[in-house]
């Protein structure tokens, strides 16, 4: 991955954003991936499609399965490219602050990365924890990411959001510029639109 | 990038907002419009650069609320303004931060980082203490990181800005 110029400076400047409410990932543990191609994959699904089934291991020792949510909860899947990187380390702790927004719309949040489970777990612990379930799409590598069409050639997922309703239908997709955080407001609107 | 230095004139920036009518009233600027920072009606401004996504800022928020209340309680609201700038935050995200921590001070979104870039791309939270100097403001203090005591920080900021207080 290339070293970066301005965007890295910007991310470095906001590096304190890299942790949860009461704990912070030390800056020296944050890997700087550089400025990346904003999107480097082709979506394999569209709004209105049924979400593909999945069964991933989660850091809390449980499994994350689509079937666990069907008929019970709306589901937001937040794919972030990699643990121990700057934007990802701010995005998920930001969701800690927004828990009520998900609850208000009867939605569960599932965080997914293509990191292996121990690495994903260590990162989350370092961030002080997250309220939502975090699952690993490491093996078969990027299986879910690939089925959705958000697996990049370098083996990480895009920074992407999928909103899946209780019937298992994809209602919102945001494959975001990997270098930037998605606006929480757009996600909140997508959740409000589920009604 | 480096923070603006003490003694340096604060850049003549336009703050886009949006800000609420109540916030505009508190700052003494026209409601519903972008405003020039220098138009804030105050002898001193404490500008905190924050992000909703920053855990340090989340930790710091209660002290920010306290500082705002102390300014009110001491009757200093006409002289000193406490203002937050949400670096990279949309209006929605700034509002999440506001509501979560019951903050009543003006919080201004800076979603495209435009103001943030002009302020030296500082780490967050970053406090700029600014004193009125002619038509604009001059930086009299910069502080990176959480404020351990709102009262102690405010007293120091007031002294630096040349404003008498308790």
Automatic annotation (TrEMBL), chain A:
Origin superkingdom: Bacteria
Signal keyword on record: yes
Keywords, in A-Z order: Oxidoreductase, Peroxidase, Redox-active center, Signal
GO function term, MF aspect, one: peroxidase activity
PROSITE patterns tied to this protein: THIOREDOXIN_2
Keyword Oxidoreductase part of the UniProt annotation: yes
Transmembrane annotation, as ranges: none
Domain called Thioredoxin: residue spans: 45-195
Protein name (Swiss-Prot/TrEMBL): Peroxiredoxin
Originating organism: Fundidesulfovibrio magnetotacticus
